[in-house]
Design goal:
The complex is a heterodimer of chains A (about 110) and B (about 120). Chain A has about 110 residues and is mostly beta strands. Chain A has strands at about 5, 10-15, 20, 25, 30-40, 45-50, 55-60, 65-70, 75-80, 85-95, 100-105, 105-110. Chain A has no helices and twelve strands. In chain A, strand 8 (about 65-70) and strand 9 (about 75-80) form a beta hairpin. In chain B, strand 4 (about 30-40) and strand 5 (about 40-50) form a beta hairpin. Classes of the chains: A mainly beta (about 110), B mainly beta (about 120).
């Protein structure tokens, strides 16, 4: 069965510090990977996606993620966070040959002044 | 403006009273999906549709129905709502072009309370 694990439910980080939000998945076949962000009281919007090709993917707002097939991970990083990055972040997976979309439980990013 | 709309945005109802949450997109997307969001559980897919007249169960379909008679609309039907269906519901749509899977566009959400 396919699953997505976001290891941290909450991550506090000081403003201008780097951050990494972790995402691991389990699948016996190829996967397509996504990170979405949900700002307070809003819907979700796409940060970045990995479909194929380069394993380092750059997204909006200075975020990037690296697909690691051997570790089945797709961790999200930003070198310097801003107060406006306060949000909940969701990792999502689509398995090749399937059309279901599985989301992780989310990670709340708290930016400390 | 490209968008996904949902109605109503807020709904309080009672157990057993049938309700429908509408979802419409103006981007000619093939793929549409319904999710529920609950604290600590993230988003869970209820149903999805690959195209008109094609629907499939997601991870939590029990207690819900959907239909896809037109490409732009994908209503979510709760025939006999129960309190455990109190949740925040999101509709989303996505094109399935040459990249196969693309960005999902999400509606603003419908907050449903079942008493």
């Amino acid at each position: 069965a396919q699953s997505v694990t976001q290891l941290d439910s909450q991550v506090p980080v000081f403003e201008e510090a780097p951050v990494e939000l972790r995402c691991n998945y389990s699948s016996s076949v190829s996967v397509y990977l996504f990170w979405y962000v949900q700002y307070p009281n809003q819907g979700l919007q796409l940060l970045l996606k990995y479909l194929s090709g380069s394993t380092l993917v750059k997204g909006i707002n200075g975020f990037e993620a690296e697909f690691n097939k051997s570790q089945t991970s797709f961790h999200l990083r930003k070198p310097s966070v801003h107060i406006s990055d306060t949000a909940e972040y969701f990792c999502a997976v689509i398995r090749a040959g399937d059309d279901k979309i599985i989301f992780g439980k989310g990670t709340r990013l708290h930016i400390l002044p | 403006e490209a968008q996904v709309t949902q109605n109503p945005r807020y709904l309080i109802t009672v157990t057993g009273k049938k309700l429908t949450v509408t979802c419409s997109q103006n981007m000619n997307h093939e793929y549409m999906s319904w999710y529920r969001q609950d604290p600590g559980l993230g988003l869970r897919q209820i149903y999805y549709s690959m195209n008109v007249e094609v629907t499939d169960k997601g991870d939590v379909p029990e207690g819900y129905k959907v239909s896809r008679k037109e490409k732009r609309n994908f209503p979510l039907i709760l025939e006999s709502p129960s309190p455990n269906q109190t949740s925040l519901y999101f509709c989303a749509s996505m094109t399935k072009g040459t990249s196969k899977y693309n960005e999902q566009f999400f509606g603003p959400g419908t907050r449903l309370t079942v008493l």
